[in-house]
Amino acid sequence: MSPIIRRTGEDFRIPSKYLLSILSVLSVILMLVTFSVERSKLGPFEGPLNAFAGVFIAPLQRGITTVGTSLKKTSDRLSEITKLLDENERLKKEIEDLKIENSKLEQDKYELTKLRELYALQDDYGNYKKIGARVTGRDSGNWFSTFTIDKGEDQGIKVDMNVLADGGLVGRVIKVGPDWATVQSIISDNSYVSGMVLSTQDILMVKGNLNKYEKGAISFTDLKDRTGAVKAGDKVVTSYISSKYLPGILIGYVYSVNDDNNNITKSGNITPAADFAHLNDVLVILDQKQIPKDGLEHKTDSND
Questions:
Q1: Which of 88, 166, 212, 217 could be disulfide-bonded to 274 (CB atoms 3.0-4.6 Å)?
Q2: Residues near 203 by beta carbon (within 8 Å), at least 6 away in sequence
Q3: Count of the separate structural domains present in the chain
Q4: Does 9 reside within a domain?
Q5: pLDDT of 258-287, one tens digit each?
Q6: CA-to-CA distance for 25 and 47, rounded, in angstroms?
């Protein structure tokens, strides 16, 4: 038990000398508080409350202010990030739109180039009436051996009309619908065209060959060139004895010439003028080869 507080029976008792000391200390404290209140002319509890606030509340307020400032900065950063994300999405959309627009411009440029080529082709074969057409489909495979165009009977297209592209012969129409037509090209395996070496006027037979076109060439046979005048690079055109092709249309260029075993004829390869891997636009000649009434027309070319 404390020497200051003693227990007597069931009651607690403070010795009088200690009680007097305690009361004296309390009196002094009350005097100091009263003096402080009189000087500051404040309420009786505000002085101690200010002291309490200075010790406990002020640090708490500083902590709250620091946290609030940090939260404000974080909120501002999040707002800025949100704005940047929105701006990034907007710029992405603009880039995609520009890509689409650029693609359209590239397509327009390509189509303009092809139209200029077709226009030049019109000048090369100005004596013939022609109509432009767009390729809309093709058979399976790497090359345009058979393909469909978007012009037909309604535009005056008929079977056996000649088709041009890239400055040269592509093939002929084999089927016709109201607004479409099917074209078989000269590289097809069952295509035969009576041709002529332009420099020597020698006749030869041009035969389609899809396997050989893998190397960019088609075959020719039955060339009678006794003097050896035909050389690589000579132009080959459709001949005047062709039964289905108008004369003088460029087929391609002699690539190689070989002597046949009979020592009479020669055969070899031709590089076609048309690009049969990238056909998009063609010209259809509306004029057709006229069959002589005397029936003496040579039935030399066929792809039926």
A1: 166
A2: 194, 195, 196, 222, 223, 224, 239, 241
A3: 1
A4: no
A5: 999 998 999 999 999 999 988 888 999 998
A6: 19
